[in-house]
Structures are given as structure tokens and as C-alpha cells.
Amino acid sequence: MIFLSTSICFTIRFRILSLLKENLLITVEMSDDILQIERTRFKISLEIAFLFTLLIWLVKLVEIIEGTSFYRLGLLPRSISGLTGIVTAPLIHSDFNHLINNTITIIILLAGLVYFYRDLWYRILLLSWLVSGVMVWIAARTSYHIGCSGLIYAIASFIFFSGVIRKNINLMAISLLVVFLYGGLVWGVLPIFPQISWEYHLFGGITGAILALVYRKQGPPPQTWSWMSDTAEDINETPEYWESEIFDESDKEKL
Questions:
Q1: CA-CA distance, 155 to 243, in Å (whole number)?
Q2: 123 within 8 A of 62, measured Cβ to Cβ
């Protein structure tokens, strides 16, 4: 499921480039160096996503080994003790079904965030985490809110709205992937099921949309196409953007 979903994203991207090359006489040459950069970016993105996923699984395993539940480390709105939950709540899950459902989604979305926003992803992740948590603490029901669903909604919202705002072909591709795979997320922001923290979902989505507006001028640049030229220079996505820092194997520690 994970590799199928990510493959759809990259297939969309390269298919669009292929169509432009065939129908609009634009030559897009992908050298071995560029392909290696792409593979390295993809690998690093998955590694970061899997590391985060490993963390939330370790928390659940500790719960099982200790024979306890960490739900009291969840976010309890409008209480001093609940402030800790702003940081800890996304790491705690009620059961394995809850954890598994969030695992698949967070891997795909977090990998996409890192892949397309190499200089920005950590800020988006941190702000999504904290801002959505603060909103829940202020306005949600008085109950323990746990799980990384709010973070999922924030990242999905950011990627979607950022792709639309920037009019970038790569970001629009992953935006379409988000809509295709997670179109049902919209129902999660409605108070349909009382046992689900729809507030976390709603405030996560709002946070992601706000961040997309705030950081609309950072990240991958918009793309403009020159219909009269037959060189790869027409693509307004400069190689320097993708080739710096993160894409060298020796620079992984910078992440």
C-alpha cells in the first residue's frame, strides 16, 4: 500500500513531463545524476517517515511491556496537566487498530512532505504539531485527546493547499494523490462519532491551510512553461534547488 501510493505520485509527475515532451515539443532530459538525486531524496524522505513511525510504535510497545496505558499523557483541554499533551498526545494511541490506521497514512504524507519541502518540512511538522495542539487545548471537549490524526490532517491540508497555491506541477501531483487517497478525510472533521477527536482533525486541517498560506513563497518554486522553446531550460525549477545539501549521502546528518 505504501509503495503503491507513493508510486502513483511519481508516476503522475513523470507522466505529465512525458506528455509535455511528446505533445509540446519540450525536451526534458533526466540524466543519471538527476535520477540519482531523485532516488536519494526519495530514500531520505522514507527514512524520516519510518523513523517517526518507529517512535510511535515504540511508545505502544512500552505500554504493553509495562502493562499500562499512557492515555493520561493525552491532551486534556483547558487543564494545566493537559498542557503536556500538546507534545505527547500525537505519540499515544488507544489500540493497535488505531495505530495501524495512522501508521500507513503518516508514512505516506510525511514522506511526501520531506520529499517536496527539503528546507521547510521540519518547520511545518513542528508548527503543525504545536499549533493544532494548542487549538485543541483551548477549544475541544473536556476529554483526553490522543493519536497523530491531527498531525495527519495538518500535513494533508498543507500539501493540498500548498500545491494549489503554488501551481507547481510536482506539488499538484501529490495534491491529487492526497485527494485520491484521503478524500474521505473531510468526514473526520465533523462531530459524527463521539469517540473520535474530530476537533483534532478540524484544527489540524485549519493549521495546515494557514501554514500553506504563510509559507507560500518558500519551498519548490512555481513553474512556468515556455511553449516556443525546445530546451529543458524552460522548466522554471532550477537544478540548484534540488541538488543542494540534503541530497548528498554524506549530508544525511543535517536532517
A1: 24
A2: no
More confidently predicted of 147 and 3: 147
Query: 227-249 burial by CB neighbour count: b if 16+ within 10 A, else e?
Result: eeeeeeebbeeeeeeeeeebbee
Average pLDDT of the chain is 78
Amino acid at 134: V
pTM of the shown model:
0.74
Distance CA 193, CA 173 (A): 32
H/E run at residue 211: helix 198-214
Give the integer Cα–Cα distance in Å for 108 and 250.
25
- Phi/psi for 145 (5° steps) reads -105, 125
Count the neighbouring beta carbons within 10 Å of the beta carbon of residue 23: 8
Q: Can you tell me the mean pLDDT for 133-144?
A: 96
Query: At the topology level of CATH, where does 2-229 sit?
Result: Rhomboid-like fold (1.20.1540)
